[in-house]
Amino acid sequence: MKKLSIWFTAILVAVGLGLVVPGPASATTSYCGLAWGSLMKQDAAMSGAAVTNIRTGQHYCFDRLVVDLGSGPHPGYTVHYVPEVVQDGSGFPVPVRGNARLQVTVNAPSYDSNGNSTYAPANRSELANVAGYQTFRQVASAGSYEGYSTFGLGVRARLPFRVFTLDGPGQGSRLVVDVAHFW
């Protein structure tokens, strides 16, 4: 009985001191618990809402791109890695810094029903200041044509990403693209 209590005490002390360590994490566990992947994400829905703004943000596990839209239903989208971002309509290349490029197409125009621009950035090549971001390298406009608006997102490497839509602010909606910092 005395030997059993000594072994039990030794095990409790080892656990308390952290000498007993859990095994390695599963191979399916990814950075920050994210399990997104890097293949194309899309939703075919069209939106009457127009693009009104582009913004970015930094988070602990990912960098975020947000496309703000005016009043109307959630937009559809196509987001995928491409060898080269191209302009809507013309197909001309849009230079984007980074070792990988995401082409973000929002199924919504950047103009109203009268053809007036709803999003007119000062510099189409630098839609947001991403200096110091861990993953993003550049956000550029590739134009708006026939109800679609396309943006080039230059990133550090071909990393996992996710895409989703949110309601608000107000009657508007948002398209969100998160790109992880690591695999």
Condensed summary:
The chain is elongated, with a radius of gyration of 23 Å. It has a 5-stranded antiparallel sheet with strand order 1-4-7-9-8, with no helix packed on it. A 4-stranded antiparallel sheet has the order 2-3-11-10, with no helix packed on it. It is mostly beta strands and 183 residues long.
Work out the number of β strands: 11
Number of helices: 1
Low-pLDDT regions: 18-29
Mass-distribution shape: elongated
Cα distance, first to last residue? 51 Å
Residues in β-strands, percent: 35-45%
Question: What is Rg?
Answer: 23 Å
- Helical coverage, percent range: under 10%
- Strand order in the sheet with the most strands: 1-4-7-9-8
Average pLDDT works out at 87
Structural class of the secondary elements?
mainly beta
The largest sheet, given as strand count, sense and whether it forms a barrel, is: 5 strands, antiparallel
Order of helices and strands: HEEEEEEEEEEE
